[in-house]
């Protein structure tokens, strides 16, 4: 299985970028991982929230194959403990999925088209985080999940 993380807009904080890169590198020891950054929508100030979500949704869909399983990182999604998230990933791997796509939406979330295409939603917290921080949290939790699955000492319980 491959895991692809899709996010809208680049990370403009160099320190966050370094931490994301650190966990990306660690994660690649366990699974094929790809991080696709979709550039910010140009002239987004001239667009309504719905128009911006629609354009971002089209760009997300353009990155995907029909067989990809799409999981949205969404505040209304299912919340997991780290161990439960590891079990969720194990079930996905056991089911024979080729590519699990995790998507981080833009500032206004996802378009209705993306919700309809998705195969599920995961919430990192009831709290709201910046899109920059969510990237770091996701790659760290993916890394943590694989260390849990391998019984490695990174995660303490």
Automatic annotation (TrEMBL):
Keywords: Cytoplasm, Methyltransferase, rRNA processing, S-adenosyl-L-methionine, Transferase
Subcellular location: Cytoplasm
Transcription regulation recorded as keyword: no
Highest taxon listed in the record's lineage: Bacteria
GO molecular function, one term: rRNA (pseudouridine-N3-)-methyltransferase activity
Signal peptide: none
Organism: Flagellimonas ochracea
Segments traversing the membrane: none
GO cellular component, one term: cytoplasm
Known EC number: 2.1.1.177
Catalytic activity entry: pseudouridine(1915) in 23S rRNA + S-adenosyl-L-methionine = N(3)-methylpseudouridine(1915) in 23S rRNA + S-adenosyl-L-homocysteine + H(+)
Record-listed S-adenosyl-L-methionine binding positions: 73, 105, 124-129
Gene this protein is translated from: rlmH
Protein name, UniProt field: Ribosomal RNA large subunit methyltransferase H
Function of the protein: Specifically methylates the pseudouridine at position 1915 (m3Psi1915) in 23S rRNA.
Family indicated by similarity: Belongs to the RNA methyltransferase RlmH family.
Subunit record text: Homodimer.
UniProt cross-references to InterPro entries, sorted A to Z: Alpha/beta_knot_MTases, RlmH-like, tRNA_m1G_MTases_N
Pfam families: SPOUT_MTase (PF02590)
């Amino acid at each position: 299985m491959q895991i692809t993380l899709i996010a809208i807009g680049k990370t403009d904080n160099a320190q966050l970028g370094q931490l994301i890169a650190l966990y990306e590198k660690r994660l690649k020891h366990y699974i094929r991982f790809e991080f696709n950054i979709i550039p910010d929508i140009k002239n987004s100030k001239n667009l309504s929230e719905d128009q911006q979500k629609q354009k971002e949704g089209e760009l997300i869909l353009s990155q995907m194959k029909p067989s990809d399983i799409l999981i949205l990182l969404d505040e209304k999604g299912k919340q997991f403990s780290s161990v439960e998230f590891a079990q969720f990933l194990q079930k996905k791997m056991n089911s024979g999925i080729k590519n699990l796509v995790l998507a981080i939406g833009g500032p206004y979330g996802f378009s209705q088209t993306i919700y309809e295409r998705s195969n599920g939603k995961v919430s990192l917290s009831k709290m709201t985080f910046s899109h920059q921080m969510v990237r770091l949290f996701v790659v760290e939790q993916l890394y943590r999940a694989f260390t849990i699955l391998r019984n490695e000492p990174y995660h303490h319980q």
